[in-house]
Structure to design on (267 residues):
């Protein structure tokens, strides 16, 4: 039923309320999609993540309430839009997903082999615990501006490395991220692609987590990076690797000042 409503909305055309929604075909399509946002199924994932965040779990039977996402232990509001960032306790730049896993290990005592940590994403309709917690934490930054810190040298180096990776063309198709996101009005089949030069487009494009209608589950930033590399026919990017975080650092910096929609709804 949900997909049928989406199709009917899309067929309504690019005019909303009697006027063109935007000169950007990407934003026009998004405005049509967001008519359904009040019924975003990602809210269910967010609620489950809230329970998991506050629930004592793991061998140490403690919650994640003392996890520091960069603004102090337990401070969630505004934390996600200021990531990736450098953490003194790990000596590296981390994104939200890798930081949650770090806290699940250090605070709760989980290991890499334990299902809550080992199952990063889901291939079916069962959403991983990590995705649920990630959705809850990210939602506390909804409506805020992307503002990743660039004060520490590692933060700047990570962003710069991400810029190189973003523009690097490789693989059998000689594709790079730049192949899809550097020129306006490009599209894959019926989907117009966002460009980094348009802040409004890009700030919405990187708004993950998001419920993906075509997948039937909530997906994350790390999952999107992996999917992009698969579509480019390049070697896969390891979850939580420095390379994956570098790409996230660059794309978040490109959206700086734009409003985050968390959780989002995407086709």
């Amino acid at each position: 039923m949900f997909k049928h409503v989406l199709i009917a909305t899309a067929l309504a055309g690019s005019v909303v309320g009697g006027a063109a929604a935007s000169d950007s075909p990407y934003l026009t399509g998004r405005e049509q999609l967001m008519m359904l946002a009040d019924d975003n199924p990602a809210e269910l994932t967010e609620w489950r993540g809230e329970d998991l965040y506050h629930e004592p779990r793991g061998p140490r039977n403690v919650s994640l309430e003392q996890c520091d996402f960069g603004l102090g232990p337990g401070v969630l509001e505004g934390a996600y839009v200021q990531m990736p960032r450098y953490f003194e306790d790990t000596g590296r730049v981390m994104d939200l997903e890798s930081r949650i896993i770090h806290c699940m290990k250090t605070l709760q005592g989980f290991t890499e082999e334990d299902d809550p940590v080992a199952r990063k994403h889901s291939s079916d309709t069962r959403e991983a615990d990590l995705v649920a917690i990630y959705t809850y934490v990210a939602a506390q930054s909804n409506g805020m501006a992307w503002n990743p810190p660039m004060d520490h040298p590692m933060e700047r180096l990570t962003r710069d490395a991400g810029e190189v990776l973003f523009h690097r063309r490789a693989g059998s198709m000689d594709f790079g991220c730049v192949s899809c996101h550097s020129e306006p009005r490009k599209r894959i089949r019926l989907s117009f692609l966002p460009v980094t030069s348009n802040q409004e487009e890009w700030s919405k494009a990187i708004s993950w987590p998001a419920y993906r209608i075509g997948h039937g589950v909530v997906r994350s930033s790390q999952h999107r990076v992996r999917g992009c590399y698969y579509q480019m026919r390049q070697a896969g990017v390891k979850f939580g690797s420095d390379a994956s975080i570098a790409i996230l650092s660059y794309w978040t910096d490109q959206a700086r000042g734009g409003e985050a929609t968390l959780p989002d709804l995407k086709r």
About this structure: The longest strand covers residues 85-87. The chain has two domains: 1-39, 40-142+149-266. Residues 1-21 have pLDDT under 50 and may be disordered.
